[in-house]
């Protein structure tokens, strides 16, 4: 038995490859060989392809641009041509291909033809296009957020400056006239709330001018305490009760104004859309889950009907149970845009009349 050199098996191996279309052609581009991968990918049987010029595999608009000749010219000059572009199979449905065309020479270096290898990259192209579309969507969302922040910041600056000035004036007037510490405490809370509100507005204005958001480490406990101070009158008026557990994830690296906006909107909604027959109870919990920091905010409020649970995350859309409350419908839409823009996701679990749980997966 005579053992053949290993390289003699190579043509047979190539002919049976299914994942790649591999064929040889002469120096003029006439197809000489045709493997199974060619038949599966391009739809032509060997007898239909062999003897024809390889330009048959190009869509008309690329042939009109002279791409087949250009490929051969580059491969002949530099020894190799590689690209990704459209190719046309027998059924005419274009597919995205990664192609390599390699020059073949004889022992004396004379050109004898070319080998072409093609791989179907349609799924990769589809994913790439979807990714570009998502990036474009995020850019549009960011523009909308900045426009909203810029408008809100501009419109709110004047009244909040007036509130701050009036609070300082009232504080000065009462300082030497009253000894009631309770009244002085209320005035001080009013002043601190005005300052905090002013800080929020300033941050909103800055966001419209910044190209990128700055990520810093935030303490959930500190952020919630700031919001509770800002909403202290509403909390006191409604006797709202908070249950907080940050043991699973005390901190997060996130833009300051974004995490504050997320929590403030959720807490505000929990108080605003409370059930009239019971005091609001708000549970806030943070944990780590599958690469995310999971923020869960649960309330015992009015709840949301199942058919309305998705639309509440659209800007200027409100749930059907909120008709008696004032509001613009911006809050949850803004939260969703912030979370999406930072590569996270938001979910809601709710039953009408029993309350809601918002799950925010933060990246």
Automatic annotation (TrEMBL):
An example of a GO molecular function for this protein is: phosphorelay sensor kinase activity
**Residues annotated as domain Histidine kinase:** 151-363
Keyword set, alphabetical order: Kinase, Phosphoprotein, Transferase
What InterPro entries does UniProt report for this protein, alphabetically? Answer: HATPase_C_sf, HATPase_dom, His_kinase_dom, HisK_dim/P_dom, HisK_dim/P_sf, PAS, PAS-assoc_C, PAS-like_dom_sf
Keyword DNA-binding applies: no
Catalytic reactions on record: ATP + protein L-histidine = ADP + protein N-phospho-L-histidine
All copies of the PAC domain together span 81-133
Q: Which EC numbers does the record give?
A: 2.7.13.3
Residue ranges of domain PAS in the record: 22-60
Q: Does the keyword field hold Cell cycle?
A: no
Note the superkingdom of the native organism.
Answer: Bacteria
| PROSITE patterns for this protein | HIS_KIN, PAC, PAS
PANTHER family per record: PAC DOMAIN-CONTAINING PROTEIN, PHYTOCHROME-LIKE PROTEIN CPH1
Name recorded for this polypeptide: histidine kinase
